[in-house]
Amino acid sequence: MADIVLDKVSKRFPDGTTAVRDVDLEIADGEFVILVGPSGCGKSTTLNMIAGLEDISSGELRIAGERVNDKAPRDRDIAMVFQSYALYPNMTVRENMAFPLRLAKLDKETIHQKVEEAAKVLELTPLLDRKPANLSGGQRQRVAMGRAIVRQPKAFLMDEPLSNLDAKLRVQMRTVVSRLQKQLGTTTVYVTHDQTEAMTLGDRVVIMRGGAVQQVGPPQELYDHPRNLFVAGFIGSPSMNFLHAAVEDGHLRTALGDVPIGDRVRRQLDGADAPRELILGIRPEHFEDAALIDDETRRRGLEFDAPVDIVESMGSDKYVYFTVEGERASAAELEELAADAGAADFTGTGSSLVTRLSAESPVREGEPRRVWFNLEKIHLFDPSTGRNLTLHEGRASGALAD
Amino acid sequence: MSVNATPAGADVAADAERAAGRHAAVPAQRARRRSKAPLSENKRAERRLGWLLCAPAALVMVLVTAYPILYSVWLSLQRFDLRFPDQREFVGLENYATVLTNQFWWTAFGVTALITVVTVVIELVLGMGLALIMHRTLVGRGIVRTAALIPYGIVTVVAAFSWRYAWTPGTGYLANLFDGSAPLTERASSLAIIMLAEIWKTTPFMALLLMAGLALVPEDLLKAASTDGATAWQRFTKVMLPVMKPAILVALLFRTLDAFRVFDNIFVLTAGGNETSSVSMLAYNNLIRGLNLGIGSTMSVLIFLTVAIIAFVFVKLFGTAAPGSDDGERR
User: Which of A158, A354, B199, B205 has its CA 20 to 30 A from that of A390?
Assistant: First the structure.
């Protein structure tokens, strides 16, 4: 077990592209860290550099305090789990799991014992003499995990290990991975493109975009206090709503009406080079059916009327989609996020607002509805830099803060 | 494509069926099908299309392989020497007895076996190296591959002549390196040169087949092996070779069958002198030069049988278990 430190680590490929740029990251002993981002953001490259499968162009990588830049993967004492599972097809489950131990030249008795132990933990005992070809996806995934845990390495590196499983099994395996990591207390770096996985699994989440780290922090912190537009849009499902907001004499003119702003935001907008246009971000759960709000809460927010487009009843609450007029928010980050979600060429008509309302709300499709939203939970972003203007000392404070 | 719309194809199929001697079986089958009706119209059409599609190939195979093979078997059972055509007569297996008790045959057989084993083993090792180089090269991949494949692109006889001239005392550059000795006049050195020419010529072919096998090894598997603690050599022997096994076996099979029929290099380099004849050379000498169709055909049939046995052994011994299966024991 060990800590892993990335000190200004970069990766440049011979063709001149920079896959990873100056990544600084300290992963504590026993910590579960998730690298997350859209495809091509450099998360897998970073993981491969930690594993030693890719050379580090510049910067330093330390595992347990020791510089390992030039060490071969086999000398780093780390175990890796791959998306494709990478099981040796010619070996049985038992041989697959024993493979790293045999290479480490352990004696037969110890190997047998360790494999049996790991198999018991992952409930693989009845499958030990099968070949990988005769296992289901979930079973293969468990064998891959077993091969990693069997030799008690300094760290686990996991490259989208659950991505090839079907949705239900993925949720199930998520808890298996989580429990296993807690049980073993081994430092783990986990790469995924799925923000739900990132939110649910990790102690800390590292969000990457274009080879650079955007924000590092516990999942809740990233969710509540996104540092920029990209983080805000990437984390959360359904994702944050973004609306165009024009700054006009102390107000923000938006499709939801005029939003008042507090002194803190105003001061930032006073500068000569301050943006005249902003992007307003608000999460679906910060809306509520105006009929269901008490007066105390009502004062902290604003209300607007809009026609209901679609209602998705989740049982516990309702996702209600409204059509709102007005300009669409546009920024490079938002386009990138849309492209990653595969929706770059699908915009629908008008801008659509996703809200999460109480299940008691009697909304009906096609009818207009009065909706309240919480001004304290609003984020304002500078469209040119993506910076969150409502963030103060790392905490988001809403539009009204003084 | 509708089957009924291709009367020409149907004729071909009918021909093929007739030629394959199944004209009796087919109506019987049809009758059975009609009485039980186990196949839907769709299935039947599909099956008919299947037959139609393989018919042309099957027909060609029958014409160009089955007939010559059967004819040479027929010839091998006769005393048939074109110099004495009057003495043609059916003699059963007498020719086989003659050939199999003949020391020239066994010498040639030994030479052929030696050439086969030595060349295939060396080609496998070199070809694997070459395949790895071609697979791994990042810079100038095209040039490396083209350069490696040049020997295979040269006509064997032409290449053989260039080897012969190179080893000719006085004028050959290779012979001059060895003080103008005449290696093609001695048995051991002649065999060595024949094998050298064979290896030089066909290693690229081996490399090409093995490279296809290398492409079958997933990159993740090698990455997994290196994080599991395998050295480069262990990755090669414990991960790559087992995964590539089917491709290696195909390459070995092809090359073994080819090598056993070695002819052109020997024909040009030594013409079989100093007991360097292969079985193919011997068969050629008897058939074409000696005009002894009976004995020559016997040898051809024996070569055919040897090759068939080699193929059978390869397929039986190694071919059944592709990596990853539980050898037939399914879940």
Answer: A354
The Cα–Cα gap between A174 and A209 comes to 24
Contact A74, B230 (CB under 8 A): yes
CATH of the domain at A264: 2.40.50.140
In a domain, A164, yes or no: yes
- How many Å apart are CA B128 and CA B248, to the nearest integer? 9
Q: Which two tokens stand for residue A203?
A: 């102690």
Q: Are A156 and A78 in contact (CB under 8 A)?
A: yes
**A131 close to B (CB below 8 A):** yes
CATH number at residue A19: 3.40.50.300
* Domain contains B85: no
Each residue's pLDDT, cut to its tens digit, for chain B (331 residues) gives 333 433 444 444 444 444 444 444 444 444 444 455 567 888 899 999 999 999 999 999 888 988 999 999 999 888 888 888 888 888 888 889 888 888 888 999 999 999 999 999 999 999 999 999 888 877 777 888 888 888 888 998 999 999 988 888 878 788 877 776 777 778 888 899 999 999 999 999 999 889 988 988 999 999 999 999 899 999 999 999 999 888 898 889 889 998 998 998 999 988 888 888 889 998 998 888 888 888 899 999 999 999 999 988 888 876 654 444 444 333 3
Global pTM reads 0.78
The complex's ipTM? 0.83
Residue of A49, A50, A77, A82 for testing the chain B interface, max B β-carbons within 10 Å? A82
Choose the mutation target among B227, B234, B240, B330 for the interface with A, i.e. most A CBs under 10 Å.
Answer: B227
* A74 contacts chain B (CB < 8 A): yes
Q: Domain range holding B154?
A: 96-318
What is the Cα gyration radius of chain A?
24
Nearest CA in chain A to B138: A14
Residues of B in contact with A79 (CB under 8 A): 227-228
Q: Which residue of A has its CA nearest to B322?
A: A90
Output the six-digit token pair for B295. Answer: 């004995």
In a domain, A34, yes or no: yes
The answer to whether residues A361 and A289 belong to one domain is yes
- Report, in angstroms and rounded to the nearest whole number, the Rg of chain B calculated over CA atoms: 26
A156 touches chain B (CB under 8 A): no
Segments forming the whole domain that contains residue A330: 238-340+349-396
User: How far apart are the CA of B155 and the nearest CA of chain A, in angstroms?
Assistant: 40
Shared domain for A204 and A298, answered yes or no, is no
Considering only residues 359 to 378 of chain A, which have any Cβ-Cβ distance to chain B shorter than 8 Å?
Answer: none
User: What percent of chain A is modeled with pLDDT above 90?
Assistant: 53
A contacts of B221 (beta carbons < 8 Å)? 86, 88
On whether both A243 and A391 belong to a single domain, the answer is yes
- Number of structural domains chain B divides into: 2
Last residue of a domain, one of A229, A254, A284: A229
Query: For residues A180 and A121, is the Cβ–Cβ distance under 8 A?
Result: yes
Question: How many Cα atoms occupy the beta-carbon half-sphere of A248 within 13 Å?
Answer: 9
Subunit contact A84:B239, Cβ cutoff 8 A: no
Report how many domains make up chain A. 2
